[in-house]
Structure formats: C-alpha cells, structure tokens
Amino acid sequence: MKKYLWLFWVCAFFGCNEAQKRLPYYDTPEFTPKWLASAGKNFHKIRPFQLVHHQNQPFTEKDMEGKICVVDFFFATCPGICPKMTKNMALLQKEFLQDEDILLLSHTVTPEKDNVANLNAYAQEKKVVFNRWKLLTGEKKEIYDLGRKYYFVEEDEGINKGTETFLHTENFVLIDKNRHIRGIYNGIEAHSLADLIRDMRILKSERVKE
C-alpha cells in the first residue's frame, strides 16, 4: 500500500492552515498526488457505467453525483479479507449513518455468483442500511474495467489485467462529489480506516465547483 505525505506537501504548497481543508487529486494508478485548487472537467474521473444494486434497481454514475463515495470490491463468499472489509464498511456506515452526503459502494467481483438475491441476503445479514450503503452487481467486464482502469483499485499492478485474472484487493477508494479520486486506503487496517474517516470529513468541508 502506497502512503502519501499529504501533510508535508499541503503545508509546502498551500500553507499549514490549509492542510486540514484540502486533499490531493489522483489520475494515475501510481497514485501520485496532484495538488490542485480544482480538478476541472478534463481531469480523470469515474466514467459512466450501468450496474444494479442489491434491491434490484439500476445504479449508474448519476447516482454518485453530489455524494462523497467510499468504494471497495469484494465477494460474498470470500473467506479471507472480505469479512474484515465488510466489517470496516459497517463502521463507516455507523459513523456517517445520518449523513446524506456519504454513500458506500461495494462491488462484487463474482457477479456470476453474487446475483441480486444473494447480495440482498448478504445485505440483510450484515445489516446494510440501503440509503447509506449499496452492494452492486452487473456485467463482470464492466465491474473489472471500472475497478482497474478508473478506480485504480489494484494500483499499478492491475490496470492491464483482464477478467480472466481475479480482482482481489483490500483497498478502499475515496471519491469526491464530482467523481474524482481523492484517496486510497487499506480497508483492513484500523489506522488506515481512521485516516479515511478524517479525509471524508475534510472533503465535506470543501467548496469546489467544476
């Protein structure tokens, strides 16, 4: 997992008083921070897509507009890292339960198994609150392309892989209200989750227009 020295660079570029008010932008799988006042319309962002959420309705990029999103990729029968990731997503849900600006998105990487019915059962088991957290399924090619080429969820290791190579990562990705990437975090580590919560609050204080 790559770490960025965000405090040092923000202090150097904007001044230390701004360090808690701004996050970098990212546009490559290497996650090199870009310190910008505003990303602009041509900066890398999550592309249009068509998926289905666990209550069997379409979910597209338009449903992300105006929301601060935390994104991960999992599968319901995973015996390894996914249960811990789901537990930490549940902690985020609890932390921001009443916050209409926040949306948690978990994409299945085994859509051939995790159909709507199975995801809905999983959501009930994990006490997913629909307004705050959605489990997404759809075409495998669409999910893998989004994960690797747009969310950069496997960082530089995964961008050139296809659907024949299993997508399995513990990363959480932070997306701002304009669908730009603003951070990547280890979804199974407590200190990284604390960093994510802090950065979500920083994003809430931003006043950036495209």
Could you characterize the architecture of this molecule?
By secondary structure, this protein is an alpha/beta fold. The protein contains 5 helices and 7 strands. The chain has a single domain, classed as Glutaredoxin. Strand 1 and strand 2 form a beta hairpin. The longest helix is centred in the C-terminal third of the chain and has 16 residues. It is globular and about 45 Å long. The relative contact order is 0.20. The N terminus is likely disordered.
Give the SSE map.
Elements: H1 6-14, E1 50-53, E2 58-60, E3 68-74, H2 82-95, E4 102-108, H3 116-125, E5 133-137, H4 140-150, E6 171-175, E7 181-186, H5 190-205
Parallel strand pairs: 3-4, 4-5
Antiparallel strand pairs: 1-2, 1-5, 3-6, 6-7
Defining key terms:
210 residues, alpha/beta, Glutaredoxin, 7-stranded mixed sheet, 5 helices, 7 strands, disordered N terminus
Name the strands of the widest sheet in spatial order.
2-1-5-4-3-6-7
> What class, by secondary structure content?
alpha/beta
Per CATH, the superfamily is Glutaredoxin
Q: Give the second-level CATH assignment, the architecture.
A: 3-Layer(aba) Sandwich
Query: What order do the SSEs take from the amino end to the carboxyl end, as H and E?
Result: HEEEHEHEHEEH
In percent terms, what proportion of residues is strand?
15-25%
Q: What is the level 1 CATH name?
A: Alpha Beta
The CATH topology name reads: Glutaredoxin
**Rg from alpha-carbon coordinates:** 16 Å
Task: Let me know the average pLDDT.
Answer: 89
What is the CA-CA span between the terminal residues?
A: 30 Å
Total count of strands: 7
Q: How many helical stretches?
A: 5
Largest sheet: 7 strands, mixed
Unreliable sequence segments: 1-19
Overall, the morphology is: globular
Give the count of structural domains: 1
